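Structure first, sequence second, as always.
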């Protein structure tokens, strides 16, 4: 059992913050006419349940049940021997063992007096595993189960000061890890070893990275599967989790003189970050030579970061104060270029900020 991976400090994230988040969800449930809300969680999709309870299931799956007037209930496909650990790191009501997760949910709803046919919202419905979704829909009635993702997205942001502080800690870990990579790093294996050693020693729970090994040949970032030599210019994207709070940091690195166009791209990116923190995504300046594609990502559901907006389309509206990651790719005359950085969005008379870590 990986007890040491995540502890809960009430000084960093008071229980009152989690209570207020659940209250925001309940207000949304009332507006939507939902008798209950379920939020799925797994190692790959931990964000919604962690935001509500501080719990992340590192090796299994679980479902959180939120009712209008009771403490949230966690149904976990884990043996009771880990329930003590779950209670230690989380803020919720009952913890119930549910090896068959869908049946456990149905039994708990019946025990709480919620009858089939009542409107049931599910955060993460579109990615709910079939082994959970199909029995649940068959027994409850598919028409009564609704996607609660839009409602949850509307209450998930803006972030609070406690979340911002923990994201800043994660960013500091990422910055130190990148700064510790040797200038003469020869390949992705040495790069990964340097990143892992620094980030893990600083308390990172998860460290994910993608690399574009040679920006003179292409700018596509990929997960490391095998060892690749690094060119004179490469790009690194680093995603770090600290106490369940994820941050993403990325940049282009040159061993020697920066390729042509990089300085203009950096200036455009810095100006864009400032504008995003000032008044949101409207009015970003034109990209260098019109070559850059940009994205805004934020936590709006079960995944730590989801695509919210691109230079071409908005997917999820983000209110002022939202914690987001701004990323840009450009194909320049001197080769490809990439950078990403976190910030809180401005807008509506509210000023955001670029995170420094």
């Amino acid at each position: 059992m990986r007890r040491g991976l995540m502890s809960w400090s009430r000084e960093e994230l008071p229980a009152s913050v989690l209570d207020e988040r659940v209250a925001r969800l309940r207000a949304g449930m009332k507006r939507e006419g939902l008798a209950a809300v379920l939020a799925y969680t797994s190692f790959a999709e931990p964000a919604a349940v962690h935001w509500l309870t501080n719990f992340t299931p590192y090796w299994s799956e679980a479902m959180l049940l939120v009712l209008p007037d009771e403490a949230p209930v966690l149904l976990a496909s884990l043996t009771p021997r880990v329930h003590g650990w779950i209670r230690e790191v989380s803020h919720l009501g009952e913890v119930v063992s549910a090896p068959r997760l869908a049946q456990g949910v149905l039994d708990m709803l019946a025990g709480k007096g919620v009858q089939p046919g009542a409107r049931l919202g599910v955060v993460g419905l579109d990615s709910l595993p079939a082994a959970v979704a199909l029995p649940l829909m068959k027994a409850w009635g598919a028409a009564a189960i609704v996607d609660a993702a839009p409602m949850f997205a509307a209450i998930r942001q803006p972030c609070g000061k406690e979340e911002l502080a923990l994201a800043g800690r994660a960013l500091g870990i990422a910055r130190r890890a990148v700064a510790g990579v040797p200038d003469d790093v020869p390949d992705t294996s040495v790069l990964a070893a340097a990143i892992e050693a620094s980030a893990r020693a600083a308390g990172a729970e998860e460290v994910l990275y993608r690399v574009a090994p040679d920006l003179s040949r292409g700018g596509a970032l990929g997960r490391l599967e095998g060892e690749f030599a690094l060119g004179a210019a490469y790009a690194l994207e680093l995603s770090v989790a600290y106490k369940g709070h994820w941050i993403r940091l990325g940049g282009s690195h040159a061993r020697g003189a920066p390729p042509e166009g990089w300085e203009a791209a950096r200036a455009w990116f810095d100006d864009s970050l400032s504008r995003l923190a000032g008044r949101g995504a409207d009015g970003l300046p034109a990209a260098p030579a019109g070559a850059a594609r940009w994205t805004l990502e934020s936590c709006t559901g079960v995944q730590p970061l989801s695509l919210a907006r691109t230079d071409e389309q908005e997917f999820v509206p983000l209110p002022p104060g939202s914690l987001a990651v701004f990323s840009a790719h450009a194909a320049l005359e001197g080769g490809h270029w990439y950078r990403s950085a976190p910030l809180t969005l401005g807008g509506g008379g509210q000023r955001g900020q670029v995170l420094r870590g």
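Margin note: The CA atoms of residues 94 and 237 lie 39 Å apart.
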